[in-house]
Design goal:
Number of strands: 2
Shape: globular
Largest sheet: 2 strands, antiparallel
Strand content: 15-25%
């Protein structure tokens, strides 16, 4: 089933590129989320917001604790 939903982003800014490959291969989001399945590229409005982002490892640890 294909569905559309909002994408919540941890930083504010301008979308400067969209990964058009996902239109034909949405399964990449599950199989290669840190590689070929990037969704958008953002030009951050405030670079300071980047300081609060978690690394993939820290995010995995957070998920284990919940």
């Amino acid at each position: 089933v294909k569905a559309v939903s909002d994408l919540l982003a941890p930083v504010s800014g301008e979308v400067i590129e969209v990964n058009e490959v996902l239109a034909d291969k949405p399964e990449l989001v599950n199989s290669d989320p840190y590689g070929e399945a990037w969704m958008i590229k953002i030009r951050p409005a405030d670079l300071g917001e980047l300081d609060s982002l978690l690394s993939p490892t820290a995010y995995a640890e957070l998920l284990k604790s919940e």
